[in-house]
Amino acid sequence: MVSYIVSLFAGVGLWTAIGVTLVAGLMRGFAGFGSAMLMAPIFAILFGSADMVVTVVAIELVVSLQLFPQVRQHADWKVLTPMSIAACAAMPLGVWLLASVDKNTIVTAVSAVIVAFVVLMWTGWKYTGRRSTAATVAVGAVSGAMMATTSVGGPPVLLYLLSGNDPPQVNRANIVTYYFLTQFLLIVIVLATGVAGVDALIRAVVLFPVMVLGAWVGGRAFHGLASERLYRNVALTILFATGLFGLLRSWLF
Length: 253
Known about the structure:
InterPro entries: TM_pro_TauE-like (IPR002781), TSUP (IPR052017). The chain is mainly alpha-helical.
C-alpha cells in the first residue's frame, strides 16, 4: 500500500505535494482563501492537468462539506441559485477544454488567472456594476468553465460577491456555499468522462489530513499575532509568487 501511494506521487513528488498542501492549509487557516490557487499550478506540473483538477477540487470539497452546515443560514440563495446553476451548466465546456488542451497551456492559464487576481486584490479594484440576474449567471458560467479547466474558479466569484455591501458572514457563507453546490458535480463529470482516474481521488485522500493540519496550525499560530491585512498580504504574496513561477516555467521550458 505504501509503495502504491508513493508511486501515485512519482517518488519525490510526494514530498513536494505534502509541502505545497501544508502551506495551502496554513494560508486557509490564517487568510481564509487561496488554497486551491496555490495547489493548482504545482499539482498540474506534478500530476497533469486533469488529475490536478480532481485532486484539488476533492480536497476543497471536503472542507466545504465541513463548513457548509455552519454558514448555510447566512447564504444569499437569490444570488447563489442562478450562479451555481450557470456554473454547473458550463462545466462540460470546461471539461472538454481540460481534455483538449495540453498541460503547459493549462499551467500558463491558471498561473495567469492567479497573477491577475492578486493584482486586482492589491489594487483594491471592485466590480461596480449592478448585481442583475444576467450578471450573476455570467459570473457563474465563467467560474464553472474555469473551475473545470483549471480547478481555479474562485476569482470571478470572489470579485463579484465581495463587491457588494454584504456583511462578512454573508460573504463567507456565499463563497463556502457556492463551492459546496458546484464541486461535487465537477468531480463526477471529470471522472465519468474518463478525463481523470480514481488515482486523483486517492491523492486527495492522502493529502487532505495535511491540509487540515496546516489549517489548524495556521489558525492557532497566526490569529491574534498581527493584523488581518498582514495575513491577507502574506497570502497574496505567496499566491503571486506561485503564479509567477507557473508563468516563468511555461515560458522558459
